[in-house]
Amino acid sequence: MASQKLHRSFNFTAFITMSRRYDSRTTIFSPEGRLYQVEYAMEAIGNAGSAIGVLSKDGVVLIGEKKVTSKLLQTSKTTEKMYKIDDHVACAVAGIMSDANILINTARVAAQRYTFSYQEPMPVEQLVQSLCDTKQGYTQFGGLRPFGVSFLFAGWDKNYGFQLYASDPSGNYSGWKAAAIGANNQAAQSMLKQDYKDEITREEAVELALKVLSKTMDSTSLTSEKLELAEVFLSPTGEVKYQVRSSESLSELLIKAGVTQPAAESS
Amino acid sequence: MECVFGMVCDGFVLVAADTSAVNSILVHKSDEDKIMVLDSHKLLGASGESGDRVQFTEYIQKNVSLYQFRNGIPLTTAATANFTRGELATALRKNPYSVNLLLAGYDKETGPSLYYIDYIASCHKVEKGAFGYGAYFSLSMMDRHYRSGMSLEEATDLAEKCIVEIRSRLVVAPPNFVIKIVDKDGARVHKWVDSIKDEGAAAVAAALAAA
């Protein structure tokens, strides 16, 4: 009995002196009540290319910064940061892409399972919630690390119309009128807060998103190669549309918004 | 024997069912409600093996309310019909439920609707439908007299015509029926069409009172 007690008190002192003990496992709270692995995952996202989402009365705009890591790297034919989840939902990613691919697949499966059960598109919030349940699971059940990804979800459903959600590695999600994830998200968020107006149109939302991204990005001038822009809106016939802007139309937009310099001589 | 039928009318759906609990040649009860109120705006009329009928309709009802608790929005009638069909289809290749269903509902966007779902997991959106032996008679009556956009009065009248036909032409006709409706104000009992009261229970009560 005595030896057991001694052993326990020894362990207790070890807990206090060795705060790194809490770093290696996601399942353990630190004495301050924090989950370090989850916080580190969020930190990782803070360094990733950022993404901004803006909700408007006639659609949702998603915009993302592509980080060009090497000149030799083949630019991808499809989008790198924007993914269509279902006909009525799309998302933008910030964080570890390999983790994101897994979650995007999970979300697509969830959406199709729902339509299989009910022959109706899955409500946007339910889709976000199901994905966040998966994320949450990886912060609680031991031996695994959390997903190092934040998402912006843009979608439309018949109950709540256009919606924008942001989610983080802890599995928290919330609905926003305008939101930013990734590098410099706090600066972007405060700019959005200042410039966002209710009753904003989709066109104005695109302009706002471009303006905010151009100011919060590290590089000085914004070009179409560094950008991805996707929109979710209703077609005149009432169907939900997901559209990614082409590089040409992006260049035009950038000039119109006045956030780019006329093409400089390539060095 | 069992009779369940329903029709879509002007802004509402009417569902009628017999209320006999039968085993072999014996009638155990003549006030058994076979039309379940699934949620505030849905009715599920069912016929089939009585154990399966109760088990399956309750299972669907509980799933519909679970969905509502989880998501804060109700399932549409169409979604419920497809969900129900899916459950029957999964069960079909394992241990099938012997139930045939008429699902009636009212939705804000789509208005009143009626779905015909049978135990081999087919699902059709219909204007009028029927199950059981009574179907031979009620379907004929509805073919002859049904038109779209009937008022509550006309629909009740047609339902009663169907019941009269069943009672006069079917050898094993059930005595009592219940008629329920669902419209923008919700699902509710509209009318009981009884030809006998539960004599057994009344007789026992009278005998006890006399003793």
TrEMBL record, chain A:
<keyword id="KW-0539">Nucleus</keyword>
<comment type="subunit">
    <text>The 20S proteasome core is composed of 28 subunits that are arranged in four stacked rings, resulting in a barrel-shaped structure. The two end rings are each formed by seven alpha subunits, and the two central rings are each formed by seven beta subunits.</text>
</comment>
<comment type="similarity">
    <text>Belongs to the peptidase T1A family.</text>
</comment>
<keyword id="KW-0647">Proteasome</keyword>
<dbReference type="GO" id="GO:0006511">
    <property type="term" value="P:ubiquitin-dependent protein catabolic process"/>
</dbReference>
<dbReference type="Pfam" id="PF00227">
    <property type="entry name" value="Proteasome"/>
</dbReference>
<dbReference type="InterPro" id="IPR000426">
    <property type="entry name" value="Proteasome_asu_N"/>
</dbReference>
<dbReference type="GO" id="GO:0019773">
    <property type="term" value="C:proteasome core complex, alpha-subunit complex"/>
</dbReference>
<dbReference type="InterPro" id="IPR023332">
    <property type="entry name" value="Proteasome_alpha-type"/>
</dbReference>
<dbReference type="Pfam" id="PF10584">
    <property type="entry name" value="Proteasome_A_N"/>
</dbReference>
<keyword id="KW-0963">Cytoplasm</keyword>
<feature type="domain" description="Proteasome alpha-type subunits">
    <location>
        <begin position="22"/>
        <end position="44"/>
    </location>
</feature>
<dbReference type="GO" id="GO:0005634">
    <property type="term" value="C:nucleus"/>
</dbReference>
<protein>
    <recommendedName>
        <fullName>Proteasome subunit alpha type</fullName>
    </recommendedName>
</protein>
<dbReference type="GO" id="GO:0005737">
    <property type="term" value="C:cytoplasm"/>
</dbReference>
<dbReference type="InterPro" id="IPR029055">
    <property type="entry name" value="Ntn_hydrolases_N"/>
</dbReference>
<dbReference type="InterPro" id="IPR001353">
    <property type="entry name" value="Proteasome_sua/b"/>
</dbReference>
<comment type="function">
    <text>The proteasome is a multicatalytic proteinase complex which is characterized by its ability to cleave peptides with Arg, Phe, Tyr, Leu, and Glu adjacent to the leaving group at neutral or slightly basic pH. The proteasome has an ATP-dependent proteolytic activity.</text>
</comment>
<dbReference type="InterPro" id="IPR050115">
    <property type="entry name" value="Proteasome_alpha"/>
</dbReference>
From TrEMBL, chain B:
<dbReference type="InterPro" id="IPR035206">
    <property type="entry name" value="Proteasome_beta2"/>
</dbReference>
<keyword id="KW-0647">Proteasome</keyword>
<comment type="subunit">
    <text>Component of the proteasome complex.</text>
</comment>
<dbReference type="InterPro" id="IPR023333">
    <property type="entry name" value="Proteasome_suB-type"/>
</dbReference>
<protein>
    <recommendedName>
        <fullName>Proteasome subunit beta</fullName>
    </recommendedName>
</protein>
<dbReference type="GO" id="GO:0005737">
    <property type="term" value="C:cytoplasm"/>
</dbReference>
<dbReference type="Pfam" id="PF00227">
    <property type="entry name" value="Proteasome"/>
</dbReference>
<dbReference type="GO" id="GO:0010498">
    <property type="term" value="P:proteasomal protein catabolic process"/>
</dbReference>
<dbReference type="GO" id="GO:0005634">
    <property type="term" value="C:nucleus"/>
</dbReference>
<comment type="function">
    <text>Non-catalytic component of the proteasome, a multicatalytic proteinase complex which is characterized by its ability to cleave peptides with Arg, Phe, Tyr, Leu, and Glu adjacent to the leaving group at neutral or slightly basic pH. The proteasome has an ATP-dependent proteolytic activity.</text>
</comment>
<comment type="function">
    <text>Component of the proteasome, a multicatalytic proteinase complex which is characterized by its ability to cleave peptides with Arg, Phe, Tyr, Leu, and Glu adjacent to the leaving group at neutral or slightly basic pH. The proteasome has an ATP-dependent proteolytic activity.</text>
</comment>
<dbReference type="GO" id="GO:0005839">
    <property type="term" value="C:proteasome core complex"/>
</dbReference>
<keyword id="KW-0539">Nucleus</keyword>
<dbReference type="InterPro" id="IPR050115">
    <property type="entry name" value="Proteasome_alpha"/>
</dbReference>
<dbReference type="InterPro" id="IPR016050">
    <property type="entry name" value="Proteasome_bsu_CS"/>
</dbReference>
<dbReference type="InterPro" id="IPR029055">
    <property type="entry name" value="Ntn_hydrolases_N"/>
</dbReference>
<dbReference type="InterPro" id="IPR001353">
    <property type="entry name" value="Proteasome_sua/b"/>
</dbReference>
<comment type="similarity">
    <text>Belongs to the peptidase T1B family.</text>
</comment>
<keyword id="KW-0963">Cytoplasm</keyword>
